[in-house]
Specification:
The structure is a single chain. Helices cover 37% and strands 8% of the residues. By secondary structure, it is mostly helical. The longest helix is centred in the middle third of the chain and has 16 residues. The strands form two sheets. The protein has a two-stranded parallel ribbon with strand order 1-2. Strands 3-4 form a two-stranded parallel sheet. The protein has seven helices and four strands; from the N terminus they run αβαβαβααβαα. The protein has one domain: 3-Layer(aba) Sandwich (Rossmann fold), CATH 3.40.50.
Length: 217
Amino acid sequence: MLVSGGLDSATVLAIARERGHRCHALSFDYGQRHRAELDAARRVATAQGAVEHRVLALPIGGFGHSALTDPAIPVPERPTAGIPTTYVPARNTIFLAWALGHAEVIGARDIYIGVNAVDYSGYPDCRPEFIAAFERVANLATKAAVEGRRIRIHAPLIELSKAEIIRRGVALGVDYAITVSCYQPDEAGRACGRCDSGRLRRAGFEQAGIADPTRYR
């Protein structure tokens, strides 16, 4: 289970547990601008009873070219045309590859990721066709799959709106107050309320008719 500390991955972790899975949570320290999301990922994994939670150092931020890893590139605070500067090159491909390796080692046959293709920022690695393509790769590239233990990539939120995701999570008892969905939170983890991630989160709570527990600056 890929856990970022945000609203979506917290919801997916709850869904995986509801389906009876023993969840091994995996997060990445990839050179992101802030530590708040990793602190939130630890809280989420603990609160939802993950069997383990690993944080792996993976310095893909060294590639640069993303507002999430390069302080010199400002985080956009209003919608932009095309793929935004907050896109991190090949991030979900790299994360899923690491998750695939870990899954094969521990004998897991299900990998969960909280990507969404409805209320999202337009990232190409959040689309259904990407998830389907990676699942094909996983079942071509691993000893487990070749020997008959096929691996499935689950993206249960991919066709849901943010409001639908929030309603589902609330029904499953997710505590969204411990999550962080912001590209530039302060040191206390309080959200800016202006970046794309924060705008989508705030609008989701409004549309769901549920009080927003987010701590804003």
